[in-house]
Write a structure and sequence with these properties.
alpha/beta; single chain; 156 residues; Rossmann fold; 6-stranded mixed sheet
Amino acid sequence: MDASAQKHENIFTIYLVRHSEKDFSSNSYDPPLTKCGEQRSAFLDNFLKDVAIEAIYCTDHDRTKKTALPTAQSKELEIQEYSASDLECFSEVLIDRKQDALVIGHSYTTGVLAGLLIEEDIGDIDLDIYDRIYQVVFYKKCGRLHLLHSSFVCTD
């Protein structure tokens, strides 16, 4: 086995992001993104422009899908759905697949899933926080968390 294949097998990175800003005025169970949310989603795509992503996952909500869409389109990847109700199982799937991946979630799933990946207790994200990017780098089956903050500023 050559070094690049061995490296790929042993090292992979998962990025976890909360969906972009949602429109609270829609009075909907599944509200759309605001204009700022759409801009943040495009910013995320630009942030990940030079990052290898093999898979994109999100929940079955319009706001998560729309957050993932710009990156999925630019990387020519299909968005795959996961269930927010079984994060423990989904964390095991992510580790077993060993893929560089982007996971779009919610205030109540993103930090929790990052914690499951590194076997630490990380709670929910406050409802007004959208700028966190959790980067979990795996070497063999051990994950290391890096908490990044996006520099996005809404122009709307």
